[in-house]
Amino acid sequence: KLKFELFDNFYEEFQKENLIFNHEHFAIFQNNTYEKIKILHPTRIRRPKSTNSTQALAKIIHSIAHIEFSAINLALDASYRFKNLPLKFYKDWLEVAKDEMKHFKLLNRALEELNFEYGSFEAHENLEDALKATKNSLKYRMGVVHRGLEAKGLDANPFVLKKIQNSNHSIKPFLEEILQIILEEEIIHVKKGDFWWNFAKDERDDYLSLCRQFKEFNLAGKKLNDEARLKAGFSKQELEELKDFYS
């Protein structure tokens, strides 16, 4: 809560242009994982196949909340770590951080309505690992994280929505609303990642080569959300290449 309040105050000053940029700082790295979360390897986390129980529904919400919490840190880290870039870069990623905080708060509210909270279930550190792996390269950070793993979230959204729609819980309409907000705003986030990936990469760089280089991070869902990815800046050729590569 304090972190969010501090950011809100900072972001208000940033929007008023009351801040002076100093690019001489040394970008440190800190572990951003919430202290109450038990971290497991992704393969050890049991994912509910249905939403028949309140606990199963809460687990699904919790997993999305953890992604959004991690995404806050990723957006803030990008705006802090990479220096001497156009002002638009910092505007973009602080705006993304603001959106991710909104998503997290909505999901956390849903958890509380189910008598759970963020930290009630285990989580993994896949996004945190990607942050570490790309900390020295704007090109890799934008390509792997903000154009890659965030786009994977676009792929997952329809499947999560379908699970929610199969629930008979009274909270279902609220969750459907949250997922729609997340989908619409994450398309914009991925589009920002697409813009800055193209800004940072060399002419000879292509996205499939990035997928090969960072094969430990699967940058596509089991079924691509073609419509959302096209809106976010992917080409039809890239989508076909991704489908072939990850098939």
From TrEMBL:
SUPFAM superfamilies tied to this protein: Ferritin-like
Superkingdom of origin organism: Bacteria
InterPro entries per UniProt: DUF455, Ferritin-like_SF, UCP012318
Protein name, per record: DUF455 family protein
Family annotation (Pfam families): DUF455
CDD domains, A to Z: Ferritin_like
Annotated PANTHER family: DUF455 DOMAIN-CONTAINING PROTEIN, SI:CH73-314G15.3
